[in-house]
């Protein structure tokens, strides 16, 4: 979908992008090879220059994150899927100045990595550098700022898809757990019904000597990140189909 995208070019919105597709120009290369005018000669030159620049940055998620509207960042997913981390944090509270990260979960699509405060949390700063892109739910507002506050020298992946925006574009509202239920995605009995407040209580229980509470907190965090993948796949497929549907062109 990324190489069918024209909305990262200044002055092109959804309607203009659909006009381009409706002419039979499906990809960047199609536009570059198009023998006749698409718009005015001057505008065509500007678009061609932007597309040539895009091809040079095809493996640079930061380039497209900067140019795409936040509710269109989902278009990057398939291109950078192989080096993507699904990410979620748990904290001792909501205030970045007063509270701390308790658990960071990372899922590469096959394996889960849990980073726990007091154990291996510092390893996260090194390990996250292996990825090109992160996928979160409301991470632009919460997870990533909290991480940057907690790791002042960290270099996070330049690419980021905040799945909340893509799901809202599909009409899904509310928090992650509500959307999971709306889509029939289930969690284990031990963690079903838990939310952010309960995650704080589980950490406090662990601090007071309840080892099972930490195991449950990690399981809760793991469900958060593992469930992001099918949600991302669903959002990508549905939004792609909507964008490219014949009656939408």
Mean pLDDT: 94
What's the helix-strand series?
Answer: HHHHHEEEHEHEHHHH
Number of helices: 11
Task: Label the overall shape.
Answer: elongated
Structural class designation: alpha/beta
Overall domain count: 2
Radius of gyration: 21 Å
**Strand count, sense and closure of the main sheet?**
5 strands, mixed
Strand order of the largest sheet: 3-2-1-4-5
- How much helicity do the residues have? 40-55%
Report the β-strand fraction as a percent range.
5-15%
Tell me which CATH architecture of the largest domain applies here. 2-Layer Sandwich
- In CATH, what is the homologous superfamily of the largest domain? Ribonuclease H-like superfamily/Ribonuclease H
CATH class of the largest domain: Alpha Beta
Give the low-pLDDT segments: none
The overall strand count is 5
Return the CATH topology of the largest domain: Nucleotidyltransferase, domain 5
What would you note in describing this structure?
It is built from 11 helices and 5 strands. Helix 10 runs antiparallel to helix 11. Helix 7 links the parallel strand 4 (133-136) and strand 5. The chain is α/β, with parallel strands linked by helices and 249 residues long. It has a 5-stranded mixed beta sheet. The chain has 2 domains: 2-58; 82-237, Nucleotidyltransferase, domain 5, CATH 3.30.420.10.
Relevant terms:
Nucleotidyltransferase, domain 5; 249 residues; alpha/beta; 11 helices; single chain; five-stranded mixed sheet; 46% helix
Strand and helix layout:
Layout: H1 14-22, H2 28-33, H3 41-56, H4 61-67, H5 77-80, E1 84-91, E2 101-107, E3 112-116, H6 123-127, E4 133-136, H7 143-150, E5 159-162, H8 163-169, H9 176-182, H10 196-207, H11 211-244
Parallel strand pairs: 1-4, 4-5
Antiparallel strand pairs: 1-2, 2-3
